[in-house]
Amino acid sequence: MNFDDCLKNRFSCRDFCKDFSLDNDTLTKLAKLAYLSPSASNMQEVKLCFVSNNILKTLKQELLKAFYENSKKSAFLNFYPANLAQNYKDKRFLNASKLYGLLNINKDDKNARLKQWAKNYEFFNANNAAFIYIDKDLDNGAIFDAGIFSANLINAATSLNINTCFQASVCEYNDIISNVLNINNVNFLCAIALGKATKDKINSFRSEKRAEFKIF
């Protein structure tokens, strides 16, 4: 798969095969590819861990519990500021309306929307997940490097015909992830669900991408 095809074929998988798991050799290959990413002064400050089996099962249970009980969140990154500009609000609304429209979920059906959103905390049934994190004493530059790293990990997975879903929502509960994984003094930035897509109609959804840029 060439690079163009890799970018064009990638999509956010929202329903993974429950009977598919990645082996350690494949996970190791993904990690080695992702760690070829550039970083400031080659500090390589971005950290990665893969989670599966009983630990992932426990994590899913704890995240779902926190979500349904409306527990206090402990996110390090805020992806959606309170004063979000209208043009970005419009893009979010359009994307959500198309996704829920595909699922025949009415905008006023709060229970159905809640149930669909809760699938984030089950990693959409994936049996493997990756977590991207940095040490707490690092500054914003490390976040930028983590973005590059995350993109390269996702593209590496796509090149190996592994489906992914980038997830910011699960890291709203930074403390829970830290406790379950027993990784301390770090900030979890995002998670990436990994696996094989089912043929469920939700996996036919594609977000609209616009190339908005300037050339001087």
Could you characterize the architecture of this molecule?
The chain has a four-stranded antiparallel beta sheet, sandwiched between helices. It has seven helices and four strands. With 216 residues, it is an alpha+beta fold. The protein has a single domain (20-78, 85-200), classed as NADH Oxidase. It has helices at residues 3-9, 24-34, 53-68, 86-102, 110-118, 140-159, 174-181, and strands spanning 47-52, 128-135, 163-167, 186-195. This is Nitroreductase family protein. Keywords: Flavoprotein, FMN, Oxidoreductase. Its cofactor is FMN. Pfam families: Nitroreductase (PF00881).
Report the CATH architecture.
3-Layer(aba) Sandwich
> Helix segment count?
7
- Domain count: 1
Q: Percent range for helical residues?
A: 40-55%
Which class in CATH terms? Alpha Beta
Element pattern in H and E:
HHEHHHEHEHE
Percent in strands = 5-15%
CATH fold title = NADH Oxidase
* Mean pLDDT reading: 95
**Assigned CATH superfamily:** NADH Oxidase
The shape, in one word, is globular
Strand order of the largest sheet: 1-2-4-3
Give the number of DSSP strands: 4
Largest sheet: 4 strands, antiparallel
> Which consecutive residue ranges, at least 5 long each, have pLDDT under 50?
none
Structural class: alpha+beta
Cα gyration radius (Å): 17 Å
